[in-house]
Design brief:
Rossmann fold; Arc Repressor Mutant, subunit A; 3-stranded antiparallel sheet; 46% helix
Length: 374
Amino acid sequence: MADGKELEAWLYLNPRAGLGAAAVRRLLAAFGSPQAVLDAGPGAWREVGGADAAKALAQPSDLAQQIVAHGLQWQATTPGAQVIALGEPAYPAALLQTADPPFLLFCRGQVSLLQQPSLAIVGSRHATAQGIENARAFAKHLSDAGLCIVSGLAAGIDGAAHEGGLSGRGSTIAVMGTGPEQLYPRRHQKLGERIAQEGLLLTEFAPGTPPLPAHFPQRNRIIAGLSLGTLVVEAAVQSGSLITARMASECGREVFAIPGSIHSPVAKGCHRLIQQGAKLVETGEDILQELRAQTALLSPPSARAPEGVSPAVASARTTDPLLLALGQDPLSLDALVARTGWPAATLSARLLELELTGEVARLPGGYFQRCGQA
């Protein structure tokens, strides 16, 4: 783990204005270590890294000095804080196989998870109730099989994926688009702290880095690069989730997608991926069958009813007439009246019962949707 003078040198080389990642890579390739780069001097910096890089190194800005100060302070004062530098034994091998591996990984939690086979689960921040249920159930199933679930701590699908990962034996890694001391969005403060205790918080952004919009697409390459594959649960056609899927494909990793209603905007991105060659999946086992060929560490989960549900209840769900009438697409009460022939009052009472048991979700606009088990 990077510490002391070595960490200070790494932080000083942190990409910033005038000192791009490409220049840093050239300097490291030429001189071998961060400290050797700093010892090389302006002439060598200019020759290898270019004029802008030489100027940035020779005349450090206030930002550069803040990066160094904040980074050293964070590591010294944060319980469980660890910094892993490129090339160290603890650095995840999967990231080394990508085109742009980060120089530093700021970590809080169980760094051993970086050596565990993992799967990324991503999707819309504006997910449907069914999408949230799918993400949580798939993550739980895959975590029980031994996969660590990787996602981005965002609202919607990401949060549900982390929750499912924590409830299984594989746990979860949250890749952040901020400095390591900031949990964003604020609604995930408690979830983030739980991940720091039971899973792993990880970011390439130095302490003090705010949640800037450009950082989140950048962190997606780490989500894709850490994982054997990426599962997209729900996504619009123009979304960060599809960027992650593209990056996974470029890394030679598997891409999976869950199909949805042809009328749902957050299903269209998944349908686009399937048209482009992503594997359509309906159960977690569909994913495990693909990945078991790549790692012998995955074990088949025991066949059982969903957690907290007896086999009799699970079987009854498949024959409940209202659930069968509801299908998988959102429906209004009027549409259900027309489909079942039942009085509206009877339907409303039965829908409330199913809502209380978690089998139906009430959506904005007076719509209802079935919450199935993945």
